[in-house]
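Q: Here's a chain of 422 amino acids. Please give me its 3D structure as tokens.
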Amino acid sequence: MKLSRRTLSLALLAALAAPAAHAEIALDVIADSEVSFEGLFQADAYWYDNDIMNLDADGADGLEHDFEMRRSEVILKGKGPGNIEWVMGYEAKGDKWLDVNAKYKFGNNANHFIQIGQFKQPNSLEELGSTRFNDFIAKANVTNTFGLARRLGAQYRYGDVNWAITGSVFTRELTEHPAPTPHGPGYGVRAYWAPVNSAGSILHLALSHIDYDTFQDSARWRSRPNADLSQRIIDTGSSGIRNADRVATTGFESFWVTGPFKLQAEYMQSTTDRYATGFSAQPGDDFKGSAGYISAVWNVTGETWTYKDGTSVTSLPSNPGLGMWQLTARYDTMDLNDGYVDAAGKAVGVLGGEMDTWTVGVNWYWRSNFKFMLNYVAVDSSKYIGKTSSTYSLDPAFNNRTFNGIVDDNPNILEARMQFYW
């Protein structure tokens, strides 16, 4: 389906004119399906106070900042005929398909359905939530590294308003770019429960498990310092985990809402199973990594959250002209080390590094379709360096040296985002 320029222009004008709703814009009824249109545009800016590694995405160009469009999403949705719902989304900046699937709901229960196509897999509270309502500019490291996003497959969910169990089988991503992302087939399960779910008071608990084939017999885990456009600062390396067979990730998630306050946490442990072949790997050489975060959000203007599909839903500003103001804070930790440094200073096992970050920020939701974010990130990381790397070039003392040891890298980052959505 292709939108004309005139239709797109009218939709944008309608979004700007809407004073009290950021929901999708109704377009037409086609074959008994109510078709609507959504969009999301995000522009990011990052200023780096580099320590050792040059975080600028363009490499060693003498600059310490990045300015770029982060997302440009257009989405068509349909309701009907009957209990069928469908969605087709595309992200132009990343040149990839988003949700492209059809869902059949059993009865009037939104949590009892079967879904076929490409959709977010049942893991990670942050990943399953809407990107437009992220509490921070960058999702946590655990989400971006171990969380599995959209894949082609089928899933079945059975539950009710306060609980549900979801099972999924999946294969590759619809858009396959040449990147170190998992594309092998697998399965996932997630169970959530909200023992408290009333106006302004929510307690959510959930467990998830994802298991999939590495497909290319290799795995690589790496993470940026909570800055979506920066260089990755810890990394198991392109050849760090060879003879990889399967990846299994178990996650725990929770959040608690009381009035204008929300406290949220996630933790994942991921195991990369390796098979023995000759002398390059032995049984027991499986790689284990872990990560988690805890965050707090205060709606200064008094709004609260609601509960849907096992995630929190951000409210509209109570006063659209004033907007909704939020203060945020997050502690984020990741461990990609599964080995040690011997007496000779050589790495034994996989030493991808460790990283802790603190993020504080302020968000402003203005009227129904605009959002402005400002974050400050303080990073404390360490990684084994066994040879000279071109990325470690800020300090001339790092050039033409072999370390065979642990190097600390503690940069700071200022981040800003402007967002328009409907």
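Q: Can you summarize the key feature?
A: The helical segments are 5-17, 125-128, 141-146.
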